[in-house]
Amino acid sequence: MSTDHASTHVVTPWTALTPPPRVDPYVDLSEFEADGDLMVLNLGPQHPSTHGVFRIKLVLDGEVIVKAVGYPGYLHRGVEKLCEKLTFANITPILDKNDYLAPMTSEQCFNMALEKIAGVEVPRRGRWIRTLLAELQRIASHLIAIGTFAMDIGGAIGGGTNLFMWTFRERELILNAFEELTGSRFHYNTSCFGGQRHDLPAGWDLGVIKALDQIERRMVEYADFGTANPIFVNRCRGIGVLGRDLALELGLSGPLGRASGIDHDLRRDAPYHCYDELQINVPVLTAGDCEARYDIRVQEVRESIRLSRQLLAGVPEGPICSEKPNIGPTSVRVKGAPAYVAIEGPRGELGTFLIPTDKGTQPYRMKIRPPSLHAVAVVEHLLPGNNLSDAVAILGSLDPIMGEVDR
Amino acid sequence: MSPELEAEIAALLADPPADPPADPPADPLQVIAEGMIVPAAHHHALATLLKAHGYGLYVTVAASHWPQEKASRKEPNPPPERFEVATVLRNPTAPGAPAFWWSVHLAPAEAIDSIVDLFAGADWQEREQWDLVGVVFANHPNLKRLMLPEDWQGHPLRKDYAIDTPHAPWR
Amino acid sequence: MTVASNASNSFIMSLPSPVPEILTHPVGHGLVMGTIILTFFMLISAWSIWFERRFAGRMQSRVGPNVVGPAGLLQPIADAIKLLRKENLVPSGADKVLFWLSPPMTLFFTLATLAVIPLSEDLLVAELDIGLLWVLAFSGLLLFPTWIAGWASNNKYTLFASMRAVAQGISYEIPLLFSAIVPVVVVGSLSISDIVRYQGEHGWLLFWPLGPGALGFLIFFVASLAEANRIPFDVPEAESELVAGVTVEYSGMMYGLFPMTEYVHTLITSALASALFLGGWYGPFGWAPGVHWMVGKTLFLFFVIFWARWSLVRFRSDQLMRLCWVWLVPLSLLCVCGAALWVVYVGGVA
Predict the structure, then answer these.
(1) What mean pLDDT is predicted for residues C110-137?
(2) Which has the higher per-residue pLDDT, A363 or B5?
(3) Which domain holds residue C162?
(4) Does residue C19 form part of some domain?
């Protein structure tokens, strides 16, 4: 049993690793088909391990995958089109439904785009609260990622579900804190143009500190569930190795990129909110396999717990919002040049590309840059050559959120 | 962005495009900054140049549709219908991890070069933009609809897309 | 306690007189004992599902079924009623005959093994001289209905599941047989009752002969876990990959027969392991023998299987094969050799 997780790993620098061979996702199968020895298997859209409704068409030779074609879009709700019809004040609650495991970061990103175009400065307390909520959201989201990955490996009726249930129990503590703050467990609508809508209630921080203590204690168990279990390690180590160059090309900058050796974190490299006032340790692993993707999330949860404690200890005084609270749908007016704003969501770079209309009440075009869409695009490159069981493990380690992929 | 890279981009854009567009942007040598307008013929070359200079993290591509507006007193000659394609790249290793985005303006029938050969991640992103906005990406290996069913008619994010169009059997 | 002779109904003689007349007739004896043993095994496995769900609930910090009856004790009955009322759907492309044939076959092959499982000196259906062979043959035959179900469903997921099941079953049959041979070599009989009686006289085979006994028990237990498709060896079922294994297309009670027989099979496996290696109905330290020892040991092994199921994650199919062929098969062969050497040099052939 190791409490210091990071020390158990020897991280080889990525420059010393040979990148894994790239596969051709558009491989021509005509030479196989004459034989008739290939089988097409549709993994999804109704399949327990696709984390929602994602379909992968697998071409299998026995149990080995020859070609994988991903089909997202079963959850496409036209969010970007919808946002063009709504006013700025109406959009934030819609974006909560995109990444339904990390709504806090979705709405922060959009409001930061508005603030950047309008040139509005958020007061320090508002930014501080945003930082705190983003870190708590990261913990909650990573807990689910760890749990669902264990479930994908261990089965819905088996040992893997233990971790799944336990991580849900710990996430509940954070959702309770969010509920106390915003009145809602999922769709918070707490970030608004110019700052935050809800101020921290008195005594809220004590409950959160208690929750953080409990999560940190339990994280030891969760890390050991992975590293101290030889069956688990055998299922993950060396499976689905994602090379650094491919991760860069695919635009994987979050935990997936850091598990593949990309030493990049927007919180540290391009600080927003109050991150410039914090010392952030960014864990970077280079193995790029499923185990590294599991470990990096465990380590990031620990780092986020540390940051949250630091943030809770020093919440500054002052206003939380620099603008007047929204009184009507058209009360937010934003005019200016198009802008691209990105923040470090739990799954990677979450961006908003926003072109406001001339009137300044609506987006003319809003493009959300979802990290999960980039993550699931990996399947076409990672699955060929692995077998069916590994496909499920790889997909689980990517932790895609279909609400965000399809929008 | 380093001054050397800015100089290289300026040199690249100063080259006359191989196939100059009928209506080139007024000033191709405008200041090298976020959101600068790049001729379509230079799009692929610019992405190559940026990738070689460390801008290796593919971020996103966002296309938008701009129909011709009615002539008004303020603007007697409104610009013709066009598409704008914004491409965002990021340099994850440079200090500050700067993101850089540029815009390409296209006539309705014009195609933009795909950068899938440089960035594998552009595959799905460009497919999504083609699906939703209708911008054609030339040399894309697999330009099929991504989000909508393959037999969907029209591109919903175009401004002239009638939002009430019936779509059997869905609506 | 002496080793009883191999006479087919000698245990009747040891019953207190007067012996009920029906028990002296072979058919009547079979019917009565069969009813008792079948009822025992079916009830235990039905309520073990309730127990497993409660146990898993506690492990996962949730409640588990607690609504139907006191503490949810009537849950198995509610499940059975639900399954019986559901329609049995047959996919249009399926081979109807084979599709209908598979679940009853599963049940038959499982229950047939019960004939030679002794719960105590007297409590058994028939004392066959080849009892162990009978059990292993029928549990080996269980592969056929699984394979038929997967093939007849005309579904790619079930096809995968059945192929995996056949590969896994055939591979794990080998260490299972070899480790079951260890008691046979030591005792010199294929009758399960003889093996148990030998242990009553000479001590449990788990401890004596020391090396082959314990290792043989371990291999037997692991291989029978794999035979019964329990986690970590449930690769043919693998919910997260193959949705529900060979049972994807089954519904209603046709589906219900599969998990039911799976539980019965697991219970029989535990009973066999406790009879072969853990001294059957004999207590430790020469305590008075009785049916309670056999039931207790069986339920303990059964519980260990649950415990493993809710603590471990599953192997990948190739890792499973590797474990079998690289470790279990050579080790079980070594066990047989060790037991044979022990018999020749230490124990002496009975």
Answers:
(1) 83
(2) A363
(3) 90-345
(4) no
